[in-house]
Amino acid sequence: MHELTYLRGTEAAFPAEEFAKRQAQARQRIQDAGHKALVVTGPENIYWLTGRQTAGYFAFQALILAVEGAPVLLVRQLELPGAIANTWLTDIVAYQDGEDPAQALASILARLGIARPAIEKAGWFVSPNLMAEIETAIGTGVLADGSTLVAPLRMLKSPAELDMIRLAAGYAQAGLTAGLATCRSGASENEVAAAMLAASVSAGSETFGMEPLVSSGPRSGLPHMTWRRRLMEGGDAVFLEMAGSHARYHSALMRTAFIGPVPAEVSAMMDCALKALDAALAEIRPGASCARPHEAAQTVIDAAGYTDAFRKRIGYSMGVAFAPDWGEGGILSLFTGTDVRLEPGMVFHLPATLRAFGRFTVGASETVIVTDHGCDILSTLPRGITVC
Known about the structure:
Elements: H1 16-32, E1 37-40, H2 43-50, E2 62-66, E3 72-76, H3 80-85, E4 92-95, H4 101-112, E5 118-119, H5 128-138, H6 159-182, H7 189-203, E6 213-216, E7 237-246, E8 249-258, H8 264-282, H9 291-303, E9 315-317, E10 333-334, E11 347-356, E12 360-370, E13 375-377, E14 386-387
Parallel strand pairs: 1-5, 3-4, 8-14
Antiparallel strand pairs: 1-2, 2-3, 6-7, 7-8, 9-10, 9-11, 11-12, 12-13
Helix pairs in contact: 4-5, 6-7, 8-9
């Protein structure tokens, strides 16, 4: 690989020192858990530790992070030049198409003298079959699951990470602004989605962890629907949600539009959703539990009689994301029973949505940064229904 060393770090998202600090934090967690090394398999964690990113993460990749010694990255041969360019690593091993990546991983571990590493098992990109092959190739029995070692370190964002999330918030707002401006009778969901994508990418957004959500009329009353050529008409609610991305750091935003006069039922539900969002935002401050914002929102919703229209958490962590998700909801939620305390530097997306299932959805969302005294809301887009 040495003939490509001129590429090293040329695509890196952060200086080498930032990644060295993160790796040191992770090593301490690995050591405290009683392991000598961790095999990192999640693309978000690999990226957070090294800067490694690609659209080709569907192919097996792994980072071997030992308590002592330099980290080693294993990637598919095709991915080697990109891995050199977007990391500062000095030890990157490639396996050829047709080679067994489990055996390649076992060979690296043997070279490093690591017999029984912990390994991340909970990610989307290592199947149970592949995990069994890895354990067979290593030959020391069932490996300890280290899925919870690195991810919690991502809860608190550094100033550099927060800068990227703020940029991503601007891209998301540009996309939502364009989408709302495109909503009208006779426009298609595809036109709205195209406007959102064009505006956010033109503003600076990179690839998203999940596509924008665009649905209208009865389709808007179904969760997580994407555009499907439907033409909007009078009496339609329109649900729009998307994230912007800067160097894989995401910020999301959601708003509601309505084609024509807004019925009283829709207006009442929207008023409740906005009050619930305000109540949740008011509870975000250092020292409060992650359950408090949800409980505050739920109290408003229950009092208005819309309990069955909600049935979800009020928010989830945001930061590094790769498809198929734009959030870090697997790390931290704003939800009942979550007793983790809020700290400055945490980032959350709070989608306050109420649904008449199969009829319409209303609501708004904000991405916020927890500060020393409360939270910093990252959008300036009005939250009320946009009447088209």
